[in-house]
Amino acid sequence: VLALRACALGEAGALRVTSEGLTPAVQESAVLANLGGRVVAHFQVWDYLAVRPFLDVTASLARTSVRADGAVVWTTPPAMGTLGVVLSLTSGRTSGSASAKASEAN
Questions:
Q1: d(C-alpha 63, C-alpha 75), whole Å
Q2: pLDDT tens, residue by residue, 45-57
Q3: Cα gap 103→106, rounded to integer Å
């Protein structure tokens, strides 16, 4: 069984940068925020095993640069991606809806 799904994706966090070996030592934090989407394929291999490869693509909402001695040494990329696979295991059969159970009981 193959199913394709897509959804919106938002990420928020902090980027923390520290330096070693520079004088003076630097320790800074900045906001990290991305917005994008996820595409997932769902393959039901067996009743108890599903494989779901996914692709995330996000764009930076707030680009940040890291400087050392006045020169930019790194900048948040304009777009980022993540590729992964989820293995989903279930124990036993999935049960039907409540109405299906009621009709089976009659």
A1: 7
A2: 888 899 999 999 9
A3: 5
